Amino acid sequence: MSDASFPTPDFGQTHPGLGVLRMAVLLAEAEDATGDDVPGLMAEQIEAGCLDGVAYADVWAELEPGLMGRAPGRLLRILRGCGALERILPEVDALFGVPQISDGQGEVDLGEHLLAALDEAATLGAPLSVRFALLTMNVGKSDSPPEHLPVHYKHIERGVPRVDAIAERFGAPADCRELALLALAECERVHRASEVRAGPVALMLERLGAFDARERFDRLMMVCACDFRGHGDRDKPYAKAALLAAALAACAAIDDPSAEARAAAIAAAFRSQRWSSETA
User: Fold this and answer.
1) Residue 171 lies in a domain
2) Over residues 237-246, mean pLDDT
3) Residue 23 sits in which domain range?
4) Residue 102: in which H helix or E strand, if any?
5) What is the DSSP string of 14-48?
6) Mapping DSSP to helix (H, G, I), strand (E, B) and coil, where does residue 108 land?
């Protein structure tokens, strides 16, 4: 199929593969339903190899505006439907059909959860680094041993090189890679944070940069909130963010920056014990 027959606006000499990606972004943003022929024609172009040889930097230039749009989840669904997601982000495409335990829902499909979390990020007006972290932080779960499902043992070890590879090939900004790796390592721990033991909360705040990298910490809280709401709790406040904010406020009220002093301050605020053998 020639470039001229592809039903896109006039993009001049746009590469046909990039034209497909640009059309996907336009479709994701459009409020009106689109004719059934357009996704089919997009799939035909992908099947014909229109993305072969396209520079990943050019792919990212088309993908980034869609991720930053109002419906990034819909964009990924369109890209998956026409076969483009498997070509440009196979690590993400592989998440569809993979189960994970979800509080209150039993199990969720990781791919569908990702779409919901990304759309929640759009609702919150989240920056690119938050959306990139949500896009990539679960890629280590795609090939968890079947006998362990829906639990994903050692997915962090599998996920780190995959996040690095995605960031490297697209030339993603450094803060995107940094936040994605932090979310990979810490998001599930944040979900499990408890006021019962103040010591691990104090150590968590330090580890997450709450005292010396506040913007990164705040963005991680946004990632965790979107991940939480992606499980279907979109109308609920994210309680763990409130818990850590209260702990941070308790630490700000003291002059001693030691972990012991911070734990004592948090314990007083939470009326809980300071330390245990567990880690946050």
Assistant:
1) no
2) 94
3) 12-88
4) strand 99-102
5) --HHHHHHHHHHHHHH-SS---THHHHHHHHHHHT
6) strand
Identify the three-state secondary structure at position 137: coil
CA 78 to chain CA centroid, Å, is 18
Q: How far apart are the first and last CA of the chain?
A: 56
33, part of any domain: yes
Q: Are 50 and 20 in contact (CB under 8 A)?
A: yes
Is residue 122 within 8 A of residue 232, CB to CB? The reply is no
Neighbour count for residue 217 (Cβ, 10 Å): 19
Dihedral (C-alpha) 252, 253, 257, 262: value to the nearest 10 degrees?
A: -90
CATH number of residue 27's parent domain: 1.10.110
On whether residue 34 sits in a domain, the answer given is yes
Q: What is the mean pLDDT of the chain?
A: 89
Number of domains in the chain: 1
Q: What's the pLDDT tens digit per position in 135-191?
A: 999 999 999 988 888 889 899 999 999 999 999 999 999 999 999 999 999 999 999
Residue with the larger pLDDT of the pair 5 and 151: 151
What is the rounded CA–CA span in Å between residue 51 and residue 2? Answer: 14
Residue 28 in any domain: the answer is yes
pTM for the structure as a whole:
0.89
Q: Give the β-pairing of 99-102 and 106-109.
A: antiparallel
Residue 150: cis peptide before it, omega within 30 degrees of 0:
yes
